[in-house]
Amino acid sequence: MTVQVRYFAALREALGSGEAVQLPAGSRVADLRAALVARSPAHAERLAPGRAVRCAVAQVMCQDEQQVLSDGAEVAFFPPVTGG
Amino acid sequence: MQREQFQVVRIQAEDFDLSAEVAALRAGDAGVGAVAAFVGTVRDRDGSAAQAVQPVQLLELEHYPGMTERAIEAMVDAARQRFGIRGARVVHRVGPLALNDQIVLVAVSAAHRGEAFQACEFLMDYLKTQAPFWKKEHTAAGAHWVDARVADDAAAARWGLPTGNAPVVAPAMATAGQPA
Prior knowledge:
The complex is a heterodimer. Chain A is of the alpha+beta class. Chain A is built from three helices and five strands. In chain A, strands 2-1-5-3-4 form a five-stranded mixed β-sheet. By secondary structure, chain B is an alpha+beta fold. Chain A: Belongs to the MoaD family.
């Protein structure tokens, strides 16, 4: 399956606005993050486990990286939010 | 009351007029006995001691089009259920902002002041930790993205809202702790 990844703020500046990623069916957010980390040193630096990265799936804040993704899902990674 | 009448959520580059927004919020609702409004503005320094060296010259705000609006609409729905407010207006600006500019408006109408005050604070605490906006400060020494504050998570936690927005460990420690 394919998911559409989007980046915002500091992650967008480092990695671009987004990219399409092929994943095995049934993959979870954590699997996607691991696949992205393997893409380049810049990805690894920004998305490695332990970095303060927040995620949204289908434009809803993801509270659990074990959430299963579906084909065509829009998954965004971004720094902690700082609006208001 | 129709949802469209009840709540207005706008993300925009343009400035807003507090008086006009409050007038529109109250219009035609004789049940309103209280309006509470909060306006956030651009200040000259970041609040954290470590960065309070260079005055801010310009603030840039980025958002996630689509998700930002949906997240705020969900939070207004939650405020309506929780506090029984009669109406709400949230306006948040994006793009480059100058010192002293208005950034955000949260205005709430209710029958009584208690619900209005509480809902206004609830909405701001929610927005600070759950709505996808990011601030970048420009100073004479360069530009940097603003760090999320643990205090904002604590404020949201008072309402039982999901927390975990601000980093659990300091960014410097997180970097140092990475495997090679």
